[in-house]
Amino acid sequence: MGKLQSKITTRRWRREDIPEIIECSRATYHDYSEEFIYSERHYEMQFAAFPQGQFVAVCNKKIVGYATSIIVSIDDDFWYDVDELTGAGTFSTHNPDGDTLYGADIAVHPDYQRRGIAMLLYSRRKSILKRYNLKQMIAYGRLSGYRNYAGKMTAEQYVEKVKKGELKDQALSTHLKVGYQVKKVQLDITIDHSSLNYSTFLVMPNPDYNLAKKRISSAVFPKIQARRVRVCAAQYHMRPIRSFEDLERSVEFFVDTADSYHCHFLLFPEYFTYQLLSFQEKKMSMKDAALKLAGYTDQYIDMFKRFARKYNIYIIGGSTPVLREGKFYNTAHLFTPAGNVHTQDKLHITPAERNEGGIEPGTSVRIFNTPLARIAIQVCYDIEFPEVSRLLTLAGAEIIFVPYYTEEKKAYYRVRHCAQARAVENFIYVVMTGSVGNMQTRSGSFLNYSQAAILTPSDFSFPEKGIEGEADPNVEAVVISELALSSLSQQRHVATVRPLHDMRLDLYDLMSKDKIKILRVE
Q1: Tens digits of per-residue pLDDT, 264-304?
Q2: Model pTM greater than 0.70?
Q3: Is 353 annotated in the active site?
Q4: Angle made by CA atoms 29, 32, 37, in degrees to the nearest 5
Q5: Is the torsion defined by CA of 171, 172, 178, 184 positive or negative?
Q6: Domains, in order of start, for the chain
Q7: 380 included as an active-site residue
Q8: Residues 59, 232, 346, 360: which is the catalytic one?
Q9: Of 495, 423, 486, residue with least CA distance to 229
Q10: Where do the N-acetyltransferase domain residues begin and end (predicted)?
Q11: In this structure, what DSSP letter does residue 311 have?
Q12: Which of 24, 59, 232, 380 is the catalytic position?
């Protein structure tokens, strides 16, 4: 019997189905980057959390489609991203007492599309609505056809034309056919480059929902909370020291301070390891000094790994010169509570670094997808190049940490004004800090000027001057602020101006020559 005449059936998943489900996912979402395709471990956790909500479509014993779902309790007026709703793909947010079915994913293999498979899978989902007496089913839908119209019309206008039948969108047209209603169009709820990060928020009410029965069976509906993180920027005093142990004591002072204020992230300045030059007896050129500092890399890493584990905090350990394959790089390090270490090289090298220190530019742009936030690191001069910040934003970054080293006010304000601009134009948070104090060494004098700051977009939901917090200039201090991450996506959509929505992609484009690496960080 040929493929077109074969019967298609649906059933619940079995654990042994997972390899075929991954194959189907990759074939369906071939335009997705590999890092957005769930691993076997993710699917195992999804199956374990709610096996009754996971279905497959089968043709001739081959899995040709699948659908995943969980029960959640949400605030209908709030905006949640996919990681918030799904526990970063683990379905740890599944709540049997919830009142909403979240249709997390649905896929039909390209070779088997237009055969009613999606309708069969949606029928299984609708049966969950009735069986568990749920108020509604929600989903985020792709808008892959919008790319061809971006700049010429808004995403909202595009959706209206699809709803009226004037345009056809592969995903949205199917969603409308199965009974979803489009409640709003959202930006950056999902990372989907083919849809320019736009998605529809879809709702399918359950006409048989019985509120009274639900209240009896589930007295309390604990809702998924908004994501907030507390960040700390250490404005570090560069005083002379006599040993590496002195540096450790200074560093632990700030880590302990951040921990006492229950911070999740702590930022140190660029090149704060210059302090180690204060007890070197030999006069050195800056290139020799970079070599000397690179020799402390292992101790530097061991120190921060120990503190990150001990205090259960994510530490951006400023930056320090490292030597790799005979070349020097100015490298920032991210240390995690699990004891892992990730790096981001400085990409744009100042003339002084290049000519006097022999520092080479890095080549890789990275986002660190932590359980708390999607963060990136731009070292000092890097924040003065808006292209990279915009690429990071489009790839999902929510906070950019900027360790910097500036000697005087004009240099500082170059970094500060550019950091503020990046926060405003991308609707992201920027956390920046540098060193203070003057330090005399045999290799020369080090001047420092800094005013650490935590910067926000500039609109009604944010502080008037776009400053969440800042230190007094040029004194040893910390700046601590709590950042509401969930509101970023919502404000990108409803704010007075919408720079990410209103880009003219019909006039210009911005693409990374090498794929931005998105690293899952424990």
Answers
A1: 999 999 999 999 988 887 888 888 888 999 999 999 999 99
A2: yes
A3: no
A4: 80
A5: positive
A6: 8-217 (3.40.630.30), 230-501+508-520 (3.60.110.10)
A7: yes
A8: 346
A9: 486
A10: 8-209
A11: H
A12: 380
